[in-house]
Amino acid sequence: MYKHSKILSGSWRLHWTHWVVIALSLLLTFSAWFITSQQVQQKTKAQFDFQADQIIELVQERMAKYEEALWAGVALLHAMPNKTSRDDWRVFATRLKIESRFPGINGLGVIHYVSEASMPDYLNWQRESMPNYALHPKHNEGEYWPITYIEPLASNQKAVGLDMAHEKNRYNAAKKARDTGEANITGPITLVQDAKKTPGFLFYAPWYGDDRSPIHAVSQETTFLGLVYAQFIMHKLMDGALANTNRQVNFSIDDGEEALYSELNANSENYDSKPLFLEKIAVDMYGRHWVFTVQSSKLFREQHSQTQPIMILIGGIVIDALLFFIFILLSRANRRAVAYADKVTEDLKQSNQALMAAHSDIQMRNTELVEANKDLDQFAFVASHDLKAPLRGISQLAQWIEEDLKDSLTPQTSEFMTLLQGRVSRLDKLLDALLSYSRIGREKATFETFNLGGRATELFSFLSPDQTFEFRCDDEVGDITTVVVPLEIVLRNLIANAYKHHHKDAGIITFTAKVKDDHYVMTIEDNGPGIPQEHQQKIFELFRTLKPRDEVEGSGLGLSMVKKILERYGCEYQVVSDGKNGTTFCFDWPSEQQLKDMLSKQ
Q1: Where exactly are the transmembrane stretches of this chain (predicted)?
Q2: Cα-flanking dihedrals φ and ψ of residue 194, to 5°?
Q3: Which of 438, 473, 497 is at the close of a domain?
Q4: Domain assignment of residue 197, yes or no
Q5: In terms of domains, do 464 and 583 share one?
Q6: What is the pLDDT of residues 319-368, one digit of tens each?
Q7: Which residue, among 154, 166, 150, 60, has the nearest Cα to 108 in the 3D structure?
Q8: DSSP 504-529
Q9: Treating both helix axes as pointing N-terminal to C-terminal, what angle do 308-353 and 2-9 enclose, rounded to 10 degrees?
């Protein structure tokens, strides 16, 4: 008993095992904080990249619509049997409804290419409908590029007769459009009719006499007749295409050293002086090099809170502090128990010396000693139980973190979580060992090889479909070595699309895979209601669904991701359906060597 008392008497200080538990608990807390921070940062950055790409895509789509208007004007000029008159152009612009269909266009007009020899005839022709028509300003070039027609005329009167050759940005872009046969825009200019003198540009489409773009510069000079053009004031263009209302990003556009447009100032809606993200993206825009500077706004900051990692860190530190406090309390309780055991032992020694004289007293002391040992056993049990309570809290916290992040865990993160759970289990076993001790003496893009048909069948099984829905697999490829993640995304989305958007009663999905030349051909066929011809290309657009949102699952991004992946790897694809009975998605997939050659060039 005296030896046991000496062992316990040294335990009033924290044992090394206590410090191990606290250290591992702190490691768990900071690991959970770090993992969560990384996950939140990745999600937030992905959302910002999406918003930035969407801004650029909207500008590109808007410019493509304006280009269509220019080529429509070129088509008109070719269609007219005689020279197009001012009235003809006015009727065309009115029918085109440029102000409502093409917001942001400041005017749509025609520029004629006039040599010095043909200038008198040109002026006589124009003065028949506009007696005061004249070219301006004067310049020293040997050719003339005057604005002949412009609509709406009332707001663009100053532009009539303006010669593009008088200023280098207008002139260089005009010649480039003539020489390339393609639509081009000018560098930053100020429109003569813009009283505020804000940045703008002109958009040219070349017009040739033989209704085609010539191959050589010589033939261009002989067949070139002029340009159809549109003029833009930059801030009006952006207001028409991308009104800054409740947007999660602000942006600016620069052309070389000159600023075209900017929302990056305190006067812009939701401007954030210290943005979470800022990125510069260079875009080739019809012969010019535009640089988009995109940064997150205050609205983005509000909608993407990053407080979760901080809350996890604070919660973990609080639990660690409570654990340390419990260890201190247990240490003090142990010290009191040891003191009591020493007192009982001393009393027992005295009782043994007076055994013959006070037998009844010895019996009483022995009873007290038994009760003391029971108290020590109870102390050991309670100490273990109280020590396990915060450890279970740590384990539960780790489980909550894993459940909260399970949809976005990377393999490395999953490995970390498994390691942390292993540490907790290890600590639990250590506490059991301590309890036994106290009773001694008393008691990369990554290539993978897999079976193609088996993987497709496995992806279908993840959908947990009704038993009446049948999946047929006709795989002639067998084992395939390829980049697994992109192919799985394509197959999963096509199979899920066939399952979600088609009849569940006696539904059939057929997967076919064949080898053709040096690549693979795969098809996903269903017996559903089919896709009408007019919708077969629209289904690949972002957020496009053929049914109302409330009637289908998903975000509307599945087939858009399929299209982007297939185009990235140079794959051909098509949708075949009569719009009534069944749909077939067919796509190519490159071989292993083709993929490696492709990836080595990127």
Answers
A1: 16-35, 310-330
A2: -90, 105
A3: 438
A4: yes
A5: yes
A6: 888 878 787 887 777 777 777 877 887 777 776 666 666 566 656 666 76
A7: 150
A8: -TT-EEEEEEEEETTEEEEEEEE-SS
A9: 150
Rounded CA separation 93/108 (Å): 7
380 vs 396: CA distance, rounded Å: 24
- Domain membership of residue 60 (yes or no) is no
End-to-end C-alpha distance for the chain, whole angstroms: 77
Residues 6+ apart with CB under 8 A from 18: 327, 331
> 541 and 562 in one domain?
yes
257 contacts 291 by C-beta, under 8 angstroms: no
* DSSP-derived secondary structure for 105-160: EEEEEEEE-EESTTHHHHHHHHHTT-TT---BS----SEE-BEEEEESSGGGGGGT
Among the listed residues 63, 157, 142, the one whose alpha carbon sits nearest the alpha carbon of residue 109: 157
Q: Please, what is the angle between helix 234-241 and helix 16-79, to 10°?
A: 110
Distance from C-alpha of 183 to C-alpha of 174, rounded to nearest angstrom:
9
Q: Look at strands 224-233 and 249-255 and give their pairing.
A: unpaired
283, 397: one domain: no
pLDDT band at 269 (very low <50, low <70, confident <90, very high): confident
- Which region among 149-153, 191-195, 410-414 has the lowest average model confidence (pLDDT)? 410-414
- DSSP tag of 82: S
Supply the mean pLDDT for the chain.
Answer: 81
Dihedrals phi, psi of 227, to nearest 5 degrees:
-135, 145
Distance between alpha carbon 82 and the CA centroid of its chain, in Å? 53
Q: Is residue 297 part of a domain?
A: yes
C-alpha distances out from residue 458 to 408, 450, 454, 495, Å: 21, 12, 6, 11
Paired with 481 in beta bridges are 449
The CA distance from 333 to 387, in Å, is 13
pLDDT digits (tens, 9 = 90+) for 43-56: 889 999 999 999 99
Q: How far apart are CA 136 and CA 158, in angstroms?
A: 10
Q: Is the dihedral of CA 378, 379, 382, 384 positive or negative?
A: negative
* Residue 274 domain boundaries: 244-303
Cβ 589 vs Cβ 567: under 8 Å: no
Q: Are residues 387 and 326 in the same domain?
A: yes
pLDDT band, very low/low/confident/very high, at 288 (cuts 50, 70, 90): very high
User: Which of 178, 168, 175 minimizes the C-alpha distance to 220?
Assistant: 178
Q: Beta strands 278-285 and 258-262: pairing type?
A: unpaired
Instruction: Provide CB contacts within 8 A for 80, sequence distance 6+.
Output: 88
Give dist(CA 374, CA 380) in Å, integer. 10
52: its two tokens: 């930035």
Residues 256 and 315 in one domain: no
Tell me the C-alpha distance between 337 and 588, whole Å.
78
Q: Which DSSP symbol is given to 84?
A: P
The whole-angstrom separation of Cα 318 and Cα 324 is 10
Query: What CA–CA distance (Å, rounded) separates 570 from 511?
Result: 21
Whether residue 129 sits in one domain with residue 110: yes
CA pair distance 331, 333, nearest whole angstrom: 5
